Amino acid sequence: MIRMSPDPRWIVPDWPAPRGIRALITTRAGGVSRGPWGVPPRGEGGMNLGFGSGDDAGTVAANRARLRASLPQEPRWLKQEHGAHVVVAESIETPPPADASTAIAPGVVCAVLVADCMPVLLTDSRGLGVAAAHAGWRGVAAGVLQATARALRARLGDSRAELLAYLGPAIGADAFEVGVDVLDAMCATLPRARAAFRPLGGDKYLADLFALARQALAQAGVDAVYGGTDSTYADPQRFYSFRRDRVTGRHAALIWRSSDWTA
Asked: What confidence tier does 1 reach under pLDDT thresholds 50, 70, 90?
């Protein structure tokens, strides 16, 4: 396959990852989806990567082929369940039930799909391993970020390895209205969770998913956290949002070790 450069409208994370670490987050643009999966206002050119989103399966496959052309290998997709299970990306043949994966082999692409849930990409300060996590509120409450950090350190054979994290686009704090059940679930996992909730009255709150992720990562000893500024809900031109549109596409967040660099 001929390798192509990523679409310039996609996001290359701005973080101090070690040399040899590659990461990419797709946006709404750069594909062939139409209608609600396209790009406003014409509803064309959408980069929907989610089977099961209601989009034509052949169109999604064409979008995935476009993405694959920018990657060293086929992404190791997951069957995401809003939980905290972490798998070894190198062992994936068909998508397993999991919400995060780790890789230490060069060229193996960890990947998650999102549309308001938060993608979190991780690597270590030496660039010897990578991980990707799907972190919606249920996953954060279940401890997916702590579990991913533990799993990556275990694969590195270093329980104290210094990790870096990048928070990709997710629903912003001004739009994420939740009930008391979400507050209670977060407080059961994160002692300072209440600080990330703004009361609206009537047992309703606005939740800051980025702030909750930072708390979870700090609990796992990950203090070097970047990103966390792009709201999917607030920018319909760039991002899909399930909460905003209901019928919508999915973005991918991907990370891998470059096969042409040895740390």
From this structure: low
The alpha carbon of residue 25 and the mean position of all alpha carbons in its chain are separated, in whole angstroms, by 8
Give percent helix, percent strand, percent coil of the chain, each to the nearest 5. 25, 25, 50
- Length of the chain, in residues: 263
Please tell me the distance from the alpha carbon of residue 79 to that of residue 83, in angstroms, as a whole number. 11
Among 205, 255, 240, smallest CA distance to 75 is for: 255
Residue 97 to residue 250: CA distance in whole angstroms: 18
Cα gap 144→152, rounded to integer Å: 12
**Mean pLDDT across the chain, nearest whole number?**
96
> What's the pLDDT score for residue 160?
96
Q: Of 67, 73, 136, nearest to 99 (Cα)?
A: 136
Q: How far apart are CA 148 and CA 99, in angstroms?
A: 9
Query: Is residue 33 predicted with pLDDT exceeding 80?
Result: yes
Q: Using CA atoms, how far apart are residues 98 and 59, in angstroms rounded to an integer?
A: 25
Helices (H), the chain: 57-68, 137-142, 144-156, 180-189, 209-219, 242-245
> Of 98, 13, 30, whose CA–CA distance to 249 is shortest?
30
CA dihedral 239, 240, 245, 247 (to 10 degrees): 160
Q: 56-68, pLDDT tens digit by residue? A: 999 999 999 999 9
Report the top-level CATH class of 21-257.
alpha beta
Q: Which amino acid is residue 194, in one-letter code?
A: R
List the structure tokens of 186.
Answer: 């977060």
In tens, the pLDDT along 104-136 reads 999 999 999 999 999 999 999 999 999 999 999
